Amino acid sequence: MIEIKEIPLKKRKLKKFVEFANTLYKSNDCYVPPLLSDDVNTLRPEGNPAFDFCESACWMAYRDGKPVGRIAGIINRTVNERTGKRDARFGFVDFIDDAEVVDALFRTVEQWGRSKGMTEIVGPLGFTDMDYEGMLVEGFDRLGTMATIYNYPYYPAHMERMGYKPDADWIEFQMKVPAEVPAKMKRVCEIVRTRFGLHTAELTSRKQLKERYGHKLFEVINEAYDQLYGYSPLTPKQIDHYIKMYLDIISLDSVCVIVDKEDNLVGIGISMPSLSRALQKSGGKLFPLGWIPILKALRGRGTDIVDLLLVAIKPEYQNKGVNALLFEYMIPRYNALGFKYAESNPELESNSNVQKQWEYFETEQHKRRRTFRKAL
């Protein structure tokens, strides 16, 4: 018999909810545990400003007192208002390969969605696009990244069995970092500089990055991503939260800022040394000693992979070669840091604009992930 228990959205209770995935995947070399404190904070109102326009509930499934699955239900009122839909989301979902367990979890989140007046359910998604998106459907034998979900191959089979239909696909690429900036890219960069008067800004400190470009950076993200699938515009409160959360730890060697002659922000590229192996060593915990491999990885030690976390160009400059400036700036830095490969992280398959930027590189499309939708 399966017992479903709702988990209070409190730090201590959510810790067990988050740690369930580590137990499920403990012997899997491709699974990358999240930083547990980050996931706990994402799921509780006191730690996540998205609760200003979202509501959520979490449940765990038990058999004979042993946890065998988890799921979260989320309603993003902002996205529903923008799309005119009444969607519930499911996310933070993991389960053993057992139809009874899976059905019990999804019946619970589906009924919750109906009780809130929702007419469809879609996922896996988080509160906003800053959270995990999409269930892995290809690339189960490839190492995950800190920004993505890993799941076993039986997950999508259960989604189809329950009548869920594909809603959107993301694809991921691994690129070889070239030894030098490709000649064609250099020519494009010269045209962009001459025609639009753009250049890459020199960053001298994290304080400068935060104070001069911090809010503008996220405003550009809002503009660039506004029309993408399920996008939830970041609020000023969220922007303050993410500035504090991320801009104090990223290396300036992995950031590129593009500005015009008046220093107006036009584009941004943010990357980070891969933390995948470091997070595996730490188990997603900073203490007592988990911070050591993570700190080493942040300094670029012990990895030859760089994660491309974010590229955003203002809409009026898209499809004009501006992205080339980012890579002209970053490729020499990646080589100096010893990076041989770059992970694109998820890109909507329908977003041909972002995929054009990889035409300069030797690439492999090695993962695919998907959201599933069902009427309630």
* Rg over alpha carbons: 21 Å
Structural class of the helices, strands and pairings? Answer: alpha+beta
Give the N-to-C terminal Cα separation. Answer: 25 Å
Mean pLDDT: 93
Following the backbone from N to C, one meets helices and strands in this order, namely EHHEEHEHEEHEHEHHEEHHEHEEHE
What are the main properties of this structure?
single chain; 376 residues; alpha+beta; 35% helix
Description:
α7 (206-225) packs across α8 (236-246). Strands 1, 2, 3, 4, 5, 6, 7, 8, 9, 10, 11, 12, 13 and 14 form a 14-stranded mixed beta sheet that branches. 35% of the residues lie in helices and 26% in strands. It has helices spanning 11-24, 36-42, 77-83, 99-115, 154-161, 183-196, 206-225, 236-246, 276-282, 291-298, 323-336, 352-355, and strands spanning 2-7, 54-63, 66-76, 87-95, 120-123, 135-138, 165-176, 199-200, 255-259, 265-273, 305-313, 341-343, 347-348, 363-375. The mean pLDDT is 93. β9 and β10 (265-273) form a beta hairpin. The protein is globular. It is α+β, with helices and mostly antiparallel strands. The longest helix has 20 residues, at 206-225.
Give a concise summary:
This protein is an alpha+beta fold and 376 residues long.
List the helices and strands and how they pair.
Layout: E1 2-7, H1 11-24, H2 36-42, E2 54-63, E3 66-76, H3 77-83, E4 87-95, H4 99-115, E5 120-123, E6 135-138, H5 154-161, E7 165-176, H6 183-196, E8 199-200, H7 206-225, H8 236-246, E9 255-259, E10 265-273, H9 276-282, H10 291-298, E11 305-313, H11 323-336, E12 341-343, E13 347-348, H12 352-355, E14 363-375
Parallel strand pairs: 4-5, 11-12
Antiparallel strand pairs: 1-2, 2-3, 3-4, 5-14, 6-14, 7-12, 7-13, 7-14, 8-9, 9-10, 10-11
